[in-house]
Design a protein that fits this description.
homodimer, alpha/beta, UDP-N-acetylmuramoyl-L-alanine:D-glutamate ligase, 10-stranded mixed β-sheet, 4-stranded mixed β-sheet, 38% helix
């Protein structure tokens, strides 16, 4: 079944001590859509400026991603510049130019309105609401967010939590949202805010899924080379919903395996700048990584 | 089979914003010995001063811990004072008084020399060597360490790595020892220094076992209340070797399950000050926690 992905489509310029990578394809929706596209059809909702490279559109098309919902607006594409320190542990933002993103109002093409699986990738909560207002009886809705929205748009974010099936956020965001240091207690508090499923991302330490079947503790696939974690969280949730949408049977039964598929795609994402790591993956390679993961977690 | 534990036997005074806990039973060997005692006989090698409370000796005895190797020396017991901040994430040392520990030379009673399982708990590497010099053909030797020894006793620690079967250390120590940020690469480098088994402890994020069967990724048992993590690492390795020594069959086959038993005991340790959390555990409760862990990690 199809997955609708809404979020940012951006150009990322990522500097390291050794290398400059100007104007890579980035943004939450780009990473999530490509991640989901390993498993089935994807519909992308976003906006790009008239400087958006044609080769990036071609890249989406090669992945079979439907671009009818991708608006082309006069002006510049959202552009993020950041820099990593030597040990790759710290990243700082050099510049954020919103460009056409500043006035973006996602408008769903009529053909998108009945998409069963909806991913509200990281984007302002008001825009996530606006997309939800346009979809008709979706089967499953998951939202991602970031600390910025907790700081400047907490109210619409809290309202959003009553409208979604699942929320994904990282551990520091879970602490910020609940004022609770302990992740188990934080998860409980987030459930009380609405979502039946909550997934806390912990980067190299894996993820915790909390839902009707209790907790699922998923260690991350161990990488011996981390090139660029930008977009790993977006790839995680994209892979997760892509896998879920592709599977017959009970969504609840497929959820744990969906977390693994998301983790596997995210691990590929970390192995290259921008989308280059993810694009080296394939369904077969993702499955190989999951089998290796199963060997590493079996008692 | 018996486990020999050598390390520090101390009094810990632990302050929190709400409570003072003066002169609790602490030290690496105390925590490790009590943790191992859930599974079988333990022999303790350490030193205490003439101020060491009789009730702590009685506590060891009630746990069936053999105290023939626990020296009583004139002077004060090793005393550590520390303080936690409000969120329990940061602990700082207020005072360390070595007392009788300053001149401690572990001397094994003849009856201890053929103990098959040896745990060199956190203590100066020179003393760990000194104990190894006295044991006769042990079946399995595991050593723990800490950043202090990496800073002031690196050479004897490196020499020790050629004499042991397994090393346990935390993730920041693994980085410090190898100069390598990536834990997978760090593990490889530590194997090159000697031990066939290396276990990296990551606190609330679990542990990674690396050995002849590849990696084993073990998430920590999720706790909704962390009271005091002091001694959790010692409890982990104590529980691990205690379980291993109690099991028939191939050591290699039991190793992953031993990591879980160590984690389970460590989780109890975190639920109380000093040894109070650990002492509320039982073999039945440990097994219940492992079964819960298995439900939380099954796909």
């Amino acid at each position: 079944m199809s997955v609708l992905v809404v979020g940012s489509t951006a150009l990322d310029s990522i500097k390291t001590p050794w290398q400059e990578n100007p104007r890579l394809l980035g943004g939450s929706a780009s990473h999530a859509a490509v991640a989901a596209s390993f498993f089935g059809p994807v519909r992308l909702v976003g906006v790009v400026g008239d400087d958006f490279p044609r080769r990036y559109l071609a890249l989406f098309e090669r992945r079979g991603i439907d671009l009818e919902g991708l608006q082309r607006a006069p002006g510049k594409t959202f552009h993020w510049s950041g820099e990593y320190e030597v040990n790759m542990n710290n990243r700082r933002t050099l510049k954020t130019e919103l460009g056409v993103f500043e006035t973006f109002r996602p408008a769903l093409p009529p053909a998108y309105r009945r998409t069963p699986y909806v991913l509200l990738a990281n984007i302002a909560p008001e825009l996530q609401h606006h997309v939800l207002d346009q979809v008709v009886r979706p089967r499953w809705v998951i939202a991602d967010t970031m600390d910025l929205w907790l700081n400047i748009a907490l109210k619409p974010l809290i309202r959003l939590l009553r409208r979604i099936d699942a929320l994904v956020l990282n551990d520091s965001e879970a602490r910020q949202l609940t004022g609770e240091d302990n992740v188990v207690v934080a998860l409980r508090k987030i459930h009380h805010l609405g979502p039946r499923i909550v997934i806390v991302k912990k980067g190299e330490h894996g993820a915790i899924l909390s839902g009707p079947d209790g907790l699922f503790l998923a260690p991350a696939y161990p990488l011996d080379k981390l090139v660029d974690p930008t977009g790993a969280g977006d790839s995680f949730v994209g892979g997760l919903i892509g896998y879920l949408a592709s599977q017959p049977g009970s969504l609840r039964r497929n959820l744990r395996r969906a977390v693994l598929h998301g983790s596997a795609v995210a691990s590929f994402c970390c192995e290259g700048f921008g989308l280059t790591g993810t694009l080296k993956a394939s369904l077969a390679k993702i499955r190989t990584r999951i089998r290796a993961w199963e060997r590493m977690t079996r008692i």
